[in-house]
């Protein structure tokens, strides 16, 4: 049943999207792909075109230019009849009148309002941050942040990264690639504790050490050290203390550059001010409607469904697809019922895939755990299994079976008889399950964009002959980029099949 908020009357009043990041820009393009006429306005606080935040670490490392990570060409908006207000923040929402107020003084009416405001960086309330971040201290969230880090790194010798999660590791890898001495300081007992178990965290720390990155875990940053200069305050280092306190006073680490990668929080202040129900994110149902107001929707990192705030790109893009189907009437039965979260870290010399429940040990009789570790080579592999189904996995350092494990985890498919094939492709002379030869057409190749092998094959049959052409038509590999090798392998295999003479 379509609610009034999904019906023709709401569409005729137009759709306003607040936020033009990875979720909002994807929704706008998905809506236009389904309906070229519905009035559509998007507000973006950043003045530039939307870009792929997942690839910011590549920009920081210098392997990708800022102009190479754009998602939507600004000229597309006008050509597609989209009112794009880039560089204009939304300063107020009048739900009774159904009007959005912009920082440029505009008042835009809506039939449906979509909140896609994303997240903002967390800055810990410690001495040295009372009046904002001093010079040389930068968060790592936006392209402007990335540019500021690059500028600061040009005149720096030592850097401290606060936070050993995914963003912190990516920032550290980028900085050491620019020749800096880098130390990562992390409060938890091991790096990336949300995705990795302690064993994997230790192997990751050892891998980073070989790259020139020192990791300090179980330490708390208690202050930024700051000096006052004519141009303003400037960071000179950080002070550390063990979580339990004690000792002879704080330890100091000197630094010319401090990157704060302490996590993010959903950007929900505007939603809260408008009277919408907010927990950690804007609470929505399976149609992505605010539980407070069905004419307001929310997607991406600012939304919360089933008690979960999804912080990865694949769920956000899945939500955008579902919502575009609903708002345009393309599929009135579309629903978002949750998503499996798969984390990828693919930096130079650091290759990691983690998914699902990874922290189980031998103390859980209902869970089978398979592990392999070779710390000297930076390799750690773990699969957790319940009732003959993969419920979690870690592949660090060698990820050739990531496609197989992702399929098994995502589809809850039965396991192969030989468990070792989950770690070592082609074991026993068999083809690896993620080889193009054995991969079924229904297998998902690109998790970020939900592109299957069958869709890639269909694209090939319609004339696409290179990985870039397939990517342009299907969006495969345009998210985290972790499936690029698989995409190129499938395209090469299709080319080989096409060249085999018949008969």
UniProtKB/TrEMBL annotation:
Top-level taxon of the source organism: Bacteria
Domain BFD-like [2Fe-2S]-binding per the UniProt entry, residue ranges: 445-492
Boundaries of every NADH-rubredoxin oxidoreductase C-terminal domain copy: 343-407
Keywords: FAD, Flavoprotein, Heme, Iron, Iron-sulfur, Metal-binding, Oxidoreductase
Family matches, as InterPro entries: BFD-like_2Fe2S-bd_dom, BFD-like_2Fe2S-bd_dom_sf, FAD/NAD-bd_sf, FAD/NAD-binding_dom, FAD/NAD-linked_Rdtase_dimer_sf, NasD-like, Rubredoxin_C
Co-factor(s): siroheme; FAD; [4Fe-4S] cluster
Keyword Heme: yes
Annotated ranges, domain FAD/NAD(P)-binding: 15-319
Pathway involvement of the protein, from the record: Nitrogen metabolism; nitrate reduction (assimilation)
Alphabetized Gene3D superfamilies for the sequence: 3.30.390.30, BFD-like [2Fe-2S]-binding domain (1.10.10.1100), FAD/NAD(P)-binding domain (3.50.50.60)
UniProt-listed PANTHER family: NITRITE REDUCTASE (NADH) LARGE SUBUNIT
Protein family according to the UniProt entry: Belongs to the nitrite and sulfite reductase 4Fe-4S domain family.
Name the record gives this protein: FAD-dependent oxidoreductase
